[in-house]
Amino acid sequence: MSDLSRRPSGRLSRSQREQRAFVLTMTTGGFAVATVVLAVLAIVGIGGFGLVVLAALATVLFGYLLKRSLGA
Question: How confident is the model at residue 3 (pLDDT cuts 50, 70, 90)?
Fold first, then answer.
């Protein structure tokens, strides 16, 4: 017990968690908008459905990360 300093914690601070949640919220929303726009363009015939699927998968991934970040 010669060293009474606190051990570094593996957890993020409150402000770091808040910043991470904000970034994940913006990213999830951006990918959701991109998915809708790409889907409309694919339906009209301007683009393919491959990008729609990729954008949808990214939206789901970032939504899951956001849900874990918020502890819900």
Answer: low
- The CA distance from 67 to 6, in Å, is 30
Other CB atoms within a 10 A radius of the CB of residue 58 amount to 17
Query: Is-above-0.90 flag for pTM?
Result: no
61 vs 63: CA distance, rounded Å: 5
Give the pLDDT confidence score for residue 1 in this predicted structure: 57
Helices marked H in the chain: 14-44, 49-70
C-beta neighbour count of 31 within 10 angstroms = 20
Residue with token string 């990729």: 54
> How far is Cα 38 from Cα 56, in angstroms, rounded to an integer?
10
